[in-house]
Amino acid sequence: MNKIINKLKIFAEWFVEWFVFITAGILIICAVNFLLFSGGEDLPGDTLGHILLSAFVTAAETAVFFMAEPVKKSSMILWFVLHFGCLTATMLVCGIRFGWVDASVFGFTEMVVSVAGVYAFAIVVYYILDIHRAEQINRRLREKYQEEEEE
User: Fold this and answer.
1) How does pLDDT run across 25-60, given as a tens digit for each residue?
2) Do residues 91 and 114 touch, judged by C-beta distance below 8 A?
3) Average pLDDT over residues 83-107
4) What is the pLDDT of residues 121-146, one digit of tens each?
5) What value does the mean pLDDT take over residues 52-69?
6) Maximum CA pair distance of the chain?
7) Closest to 89 (Cα-Cα) out of 128, 123, 61, 69
């Protein structure tokens, strides 16, 4: 039972973290797309709710993928391709459902590029934060071992 609670806790932590990264990434991509391609239109009122819903779904998918992260480095590329493909498929469905994407080659290509932009943004932010966390852990370990050596 404790193992299940631990896994749920890890899932919840990753979900919240990825939800924030993905939501920020989607907002950035939407802002850029809207500024470049809207033709002066106002942002539809329901778009923010759609962004939150699509970020919720993709953050859940991402948290699940990270829970099943491969151990072998040789399968990491496949893992990233599957993860990106899953997110792209989800966002294509959301994009069609919410009217963000025209059912055309250009519309699908635009969504794939947008997903790639959000993906790159989120991965870079995650990587930077991960490095920072590792540095903090290493610093604390060095401090702890120095204190033990001084005693």
Assistant:
1) 888 888 887 787 777 777 777 888 898 999 999 999
2) yes
3) 90
4) 888 988 898 899 999 999 988 888 88
5) 88
6) 70
7) 61
Q: Which residues contact 72 (CB under 8 A, 6 or more apart)?
A: none
Amino acid identity of residue 135, one-letter, is E
| 29, 118 contact by CB (below 8 A) | yes
21: left (phi over 0), alpha (psi -120 to 50) or beta: alpha
DSSP sequence for 32-65: HHHHHHSTTPPPPTTHHHHHHHHHHHHHHHHHHH
State which amino acid sits at residue 22: I
Helix residue ranges, H only, 68-104: 76-98
**Spatial CB neighbours of 121, under 8 Å, sequence gap ≥ 6:** 21, 24, 25, 28
Contact 111, 95 (CB under 8 A): yes
Q: Which of the 8 DSSP states describes residue 72?
A: S
Q: Say if residue 110 is exposed, middle or buried (CB neighbours under 10 Å; 0-12, 13-18, 19+).
A: middle
CB 101 within 8 A of CB 111: yes
Q: Both tokens of residue 151?
A: 């005693």
